[in-house]
Amino acid sequence: MNKLLILSNSAKEYHALIKKANLPNLTIETTPTPETNIVLGETGLIKPAFASLPALAWVQTTTAGVDLLMDSTLRRDYTLTNARNVFGQLMSEYVFGYLLAHEKRILARHAHQQAKRWDGSVPGVLYGKALGLLGVGSIGAEVARMAKAFNLRVHGYTKSSEDSPHVDQYFHGDTLPQFAAGLDYLVSILPKTHATDKIINADLLSQLPPHALLINVGRGNAVDEAALLEALNQNKLAGAVLDVFEQEPLSPIHPFWTAPNLLMTFHTSAMSFPESITRVFVENYQRFNTGQPLKYQVDFERGY
Amino acid sequence: MNKLLILSNSAKEYHALIKKANLPNLTIETTPTPETNIVLGETGLIKPAFASLPALAWVQTTTAGVDLLMDSTLRRDYTLTNARNVFGQLMSEYVFGYLLAHEKRILARHAHQQAKRWDGSVPGVLYGKALGLLGVGSIGAEVARMAKAFNLRVHGYTKSSEDSPHVDQYFHGDTLPQFAAGLDYLVSILPKTHATDKIINADLLSQLPPHALLINVGRGNAVDEAALLEALNQNKLAGAVLDVFEQEPLSPIHPFWTAPNLLMTFHTSAMSFPESITRVFVENYQRFNTGQPLKYQVDFERGY
């Protein structure tokens, strides 16, 4: 008999959904026991529970990001799987929502409406622009697919993979300047690893044309916040849209709150929906229960 | 020799672009002459010039809408072609920009940023929602294509055509209530004709669920403005986005300026780009010059 512990702020919802799935050979526990061998949940709740889970064999996270579990001092004697193919459409909706809000000047038009000013100026277009993706995993591939539907050109920067058919040109290694040159939009979907720390720094920002827009929906560590502030303050960049930050929630005295042409959201670009995550869990549980290799396994060395 | 008169606020740009196209058997005029047989331009400038164009054979408009030339008292002794396959992507960008701004609460998030409030509430999604298109011509077909890329369900209401493969279900005639029932988004791309006058009236609005969003990018005549105001004021509709109005520019005392959950833009959802329109003109000129039937001909009886 497998024993599942749910460690999530939506534990009740997950409990009901998994119970309904009627999975064979499974009991659901509400507290850690010496027999708990499976955990489903949020990384921030799982990490402190490690010590009370001697029989732990498999952790399925409800998130794509797993950086909280990557510290090399933490245990690695279990199989870790994260949530994939769940966040792509949500992230894509966010990215194109903000790209279009930028081009169509939705905030400025709203201000003109409030001032009762008929503003017939010509809005911008996505059509034919160049989008660069930092990171092309399952989320990036989905953003690339929508970018092609909008008739954008797509650059992809990855460690080595070239899997998406919707990326026009791939870049790796030390070709970041070539990747960035001429981009209209730079979108980061990178996971948090040592290799991605401050990858969006003054150097990379200086490669972008001044009309470029930066969007970060990956992790806050990828952005050198001081360098981005400087670029925005000096109008070296048309704007930035940030959903993630070095420290969250953002300190109330952080200069981002009032930086020019910076739009912030609050780590909400792709919230987990228990229904979608439960589908991932159920699929993987059926593999676990029959001894097959699990999908969406995280590589502890690589960090994602 | 064909004689072309350009009647447009962007006449200089059109002149340069057409000269560059080096079309055979064509001279470009700057004022109407007894020999002028072709006119390219904006309907509002063409209409008053009709009397000075005795040899008029063909008018190519720079717009999709041609309602200003449809009055039955106006001449119809020429071939009228409008601009098609030009505005689809622009309109589509506008529609999805505002749909996403609505779901992602871009204006509210911005207000929270200004108030330095970390707002972790879950945004809405397009995924799986139902979009209804009033009018599925070349623009509607493009909006339908993007809707499928975003995984929406698509209802199409047309006079009789069922041409787009991206419409899941077509409706005609007196089935407007069935078309509207259960829609999350209603988008009007209708031309101005007698048949479309106030088609979005209290009846149709009452068929929509209260969480529905209305977008009008067609013509202002399609909306019963008093009925829409009433629906918004009574929260019978989540919101409306209007780019077109009964009277433009909108009167400064019109209640729309301050109506709740109403976003306005200013007939800017699809501005003509001379490069794109010139491509349409060049294509049609080559047909005209060799005696072939022109593309994008307007039917005076139908009105579009």
Explained architecture:
Two copies of one chain form a homodimer. With 304 residues, chain A is an alpha/beta fold. The first copy, chain A, has two domains: 2-85 and 272-289, NAD(P)-binding Rossmann-like Domain (Rossmann fold), CATH 3.40.50; 88-264, Rossmann fold, CATH 3.40.50.720. The first copy, chain A, has nine helices and twelve strands. In chain A, helix 3 crosses helix 5 (138-149).
The computed structural class of chain A is alpha/beta
Percent helix of chain A: 25-40%
The CATH C-level class name of the largest domain in chain A: Alpha Beta
> Biggest protein-protein interface?
A-B, 43 and 43 residues
CATH architecture verdict of the largest domain in chain A: 3-Layer(aba) Sandwich
Strand order of the largest sheet of chain A: 8-7-6-9-10-11-12
| Radius of gyration computed on alpha carbons of chain A | 21 Å
Oligomer: homodimer
By CATH's scheme, which homologous superfamily of the largest domain in chain A applies? NAD(P)-binding Rossmann-like Domain
Q: Which stretches of chain A are low in confidence, meaning pLDDT under 50 for 5 or more residues running? A: none
Largest sheet of chain A: 7 strands, parallel
